[in-house]
Amino acid sequence: MREEYDFSDAKRASEMPHLVRLQAEAAKGKTRITLYLDDDVLEAFRERAEADGHGYQTLINDALRSAIRPECAPVTVDALRRILREELRAA
């Protein structure tokens, strides 16, 4: 490995049409924003992401999607117990 590299002739990604296309395809349907989250919330998502093998941003996105569309939220143990109790009473 060299101690120093010469990037004087390097081009920016925005100057390379094939890289511009790749970047556009990767970001399709997504918007970059700045968002402040509490440290403990972010740490919890990062820990869960590491345990599950997913990206923490994907988990945050899924949680936000569940909040705006509760019918898409994963079933929790408490919700399952409530539904089972209701069904058993009705039977």
From TrEMBL:
The lineage of its organism: Bacteria, Pseudomonadati, Pseudomonadota, Gammaproteobacteria, Methylococcales. It comes from Candidatus Methylumidiphilus alinenensis. This is CopG family transcriptional regulator. Pfam families: BrnA_antitoxin (PF14384).
